[in-house]
Amino acid sequence: MSRTRKTRSIQRAPSYQGLKPYGVQVKSNVEVELHLEEYEAIKLCDFDLLTQAEAADVMEVSRPTFTRIYESARRKMARVLVEPCVMKIRGGHAMARTVWHQCLVCQVSFAAEPVNAVCPLCGTGRI
Amino acid sequence: MKIGIALHQNNRDAMIHENFGRCAWFGIYDSASGDMQFIPNSDLDQPGHAGLRASRLLAEEGVQVVVAGRFGSHAMDFLEKHKIRMVVTELPRRLEDILCNIK
């Protein structure tokens, strides 16, 4: 068994399940799985524009580990762009630092403690 | 309780902004009095760290809950440290829809 991976910290999982190319027939058996920490790496460096050093701190991993995750993410996304194929965002070894709950009344997500959380807007118990 | 909301416009018909730090206006709603105040986001066009500046601005106003489509890393970091609750709408929502549920 290979060395176990330390859990990567993410802020929030994406609210959608993946991406599909449009305007072309894609092979249904080919799909790329973008791990949650890879999604987070792209979000931190390419969207929030952090340096890799800052992003590694946010994700609570070493800089070489972060670079490996980031490179893997970019290669997967390049494959999705060029081939093209379906990309599903799931899996990996990530856990959200902040716990996000859903309020069915307000139809929003909110950050709170893992247990006994109430919606900060309407006060009802979480989903 | 004061609630800070990222908005596209400065009126009650406004849509909630999809990005916390880059919104044009902040609505500050006082749930005790029902008052609604609109503050412009003057640092909107500055490159980088907009979320952090926005968080500081709202924290100074005594806001305890913030609402937007999403929050960037710097904003999330600051808000978590200051125990300000984040509420994410994800889909486009009207300000009125959110306000009517507030107790």
Report on the structure:
The complex is a heterodimer of chains A (127) and B (103). With 127 residues, chain A is an alpha/beta fold. Chain A has helices spanning 36-47, 52-59, 63-82; strands at 8-10, 18-19, 31-34, 86-89, 94-96, 99-103, 108-112. In chain A, helix 1 crosses helix 3 (63-82) and helix 2 crosses helix 3. Chain A is globular, with a radius of gyration of 17 Å. In chain B, helix 1 packs parallel to helix 2 (73-81). Chain B is globular and about 35 Å long. Chain B has helices spanning 50-60, 73-81, 95-99; strands spanning 2-7, 25-30, 36-40, 65-68, 85-88. Chain B has 103 residues and is of the alpha/beta class. Chain B is 24% helix and 24% strand. Chain B contains 3 helices and 5 strands. Chain B has a 5-stranded mixed sheet with strand order 3-2-1-4-5, with helices on one face. Classes of the chains: A alpha/beta (127), B alpha/beta (103). Strand 7 (108-112) of chain A pairs antiparallel with strand 5 of chain B.
Strand order of the largest sheet of chain B: 3-2-1-4-5
Class by alpha and beta content of chain A? alpha/beta
H/E series of chain B: EEEHEHEH
Mean pLDDT of chain A: 89
Largest interface: A-B, 24 and 23 residues
Strand order across the largest sheet of chain A: 2-4-3
- Determine the strand fraction of chain B and express it as a percent band: 15-25%
Shape of chain B: globular
Q: State the share of residues found in helices of chain A, binned by percent.
A: 25-40%
Radius of gyration of chain A: 17 Å
Helicity range of chain B: 10-25%
| Distance between the first and last residues' Cα of chain B | 10 Å
Strand segment count of chain B:
5
Which segments of chain B are poorly predicted (pLDDT under 50) over 5 or more consecutive residues?
none
Q: Summarize the main sheet of chain A.
A: 3 strands, mixed
**Count of helices of chain A?**
3
What's the assembly state of these chains? heterodimer
Order of helices and strands of chain A: EEEHHHEEEE
- How many beta-strand runs of chain A? 7
